[in-house]
Amino acid sequence: MSNTVQASPEDVAEIDAFCDTLWLEDGLAKASLSSYRSDLLHLARWMTEQHLSSLCAADELALISFVAMLSQTRRASSQARYISTLRRFYRHLLARGLIRSDPTLKIAMPLKPARLPKVLSERDVEALLGAPPVDTPLGLRDRAMLETLYATGLRVSELVGLKLHEVSFDMGILRVFGKGSKERLVPLGEQAIDWLRLYLADARPEVLAGRQSDDMFVTARGAGMTRQAFWLLIKRYALAAGIAPARLSPHVLRHAFATHLLNHGADLRVVQLLLGHSDISTTQIYTHIARERLKTLHAEHHPRG
Q1: Half-sphere exposure of 166 (CA within 13 A, CB side)
Q2: Are residues 166 and 289 in the same domain?
Q3: Which of 92, 168, 196, 224 could form a Cys-Cys staple with 215, CB 3.0–4.6 A?
Q4: Catalytic positions, please?
Q5: In this structure, is residue 116 part of a structural domain?
Q6: What is the Cα–Cα distance from 280 to 284, expressed in whole angstroms?
């Protein structure tokens, strides 16, 4: 599709109104709103290029044609995201009385192959945790971040957004606000507490150099750590630890946290609570990883494996 094709002003206005509603009523994050807006602008530009009517007048055939076009170049996961966007947008239009029926009702989700999260072994995790040079302030900060991540299973966004007042050393817990601003309390563990105390006492004041911040983890500029910067740090330390980049993801320690807990006998419901999953089916994928690991160990070490 040509980059010169523009969505009509009417369609842009409807997309803006939809995103405003998501922000005001659901409190969606900027990244989520940006994704919704991008998907809908893509549809609007495609409809303009195909000389089709406005978004409000789009029928089932037009939307099916759009999804068929996506299937030629997009992965199933990307197609599914677009379809979810369309469904939510047209339910919004229906609720506002701008359309009389939902044209997305018969659009089926693509079949997605089950993909297991990438998980590091306990030995790999130890190597990764030991990679930062703790004789420097930034290295000590990075060690504290990695230890906290592995001890708690936080999402990277939750870790970098952590504030000083959300950590209770006396109780040994973190207070976290996850997806949908849902609050949960997560145990820290002794080693993570020890590294955090070291960081706060020795490294953080030196990194801040007299500046003030309520962010737990700060950069050399005195600002809070970002997801993107921390992902670069993980990749750097993984390389130093001899871990192949293909085995990494931004949530590699979150996945390791869940899988290693299950490997050591933790209850699935407890892991669900610690991860902040609203649906246990999301947590159950880690049981498959744990079972695969046990099968591998059996094959390697049992005399009749």
Answers
A1: 19
A2: yes
A3: 224
A4: 155, 179, 251, 254, 277, 286
A5: no
A6: 6
Are residues 15 and 76 both part of a single domain?
Answer: yes
Cα dihedral 251, 254, 258, 260 sign: positive
Does residue 285 share a domain with residue 146?
yes
Report the C-alpha gap between 151 and 146 in whole angstroms.
8
Q: Three-class SS of residue 170?
A: coil
* Tens of pLDDT, residues 11-55: 999 999 999 999 988 888 888 899 999 999 999 999 999 888 899
Query: Which secondary structure element, helix H or strand E, spans residue 299, and what is its range?
Result: helix 280-301
Q: Which residues pair with 216 in a beta bridge?
A: none
158 CB burial (10 A radius; 0-12, 13-18, 19+): buried
> Which CATH number is 39's domain given?
1.10.150
Domain, as residue range, for 64: 9-95
Tokens describing residue 43: 């549809």
As a whole number of angstroms, the distance between CA 156 and CA 227 comes to 6
- Asked if the structure places residue 107 within a domain, the reply is no
- Which residues of the chain fall short of a pLDDT of 70? 1-4, 112-118, 178-181, 270, 273, 276-305
The string over 178-194, giving b where at least 16 C-beta atoms fall within 10 Å of a residue's C-beta and e elsewhere, is beeeeebebebeeebbe
How many structural domains is the chain composed of? 2
Are 141 and 186 contained in the same domain?
Answer: yes
State whether 132 and 89 are in the same domain: no
Asked if 90 contacts 100 with a C-beta cutoff of 8 angstroms, the reply is no
* Residue 62: inside a domain: yes
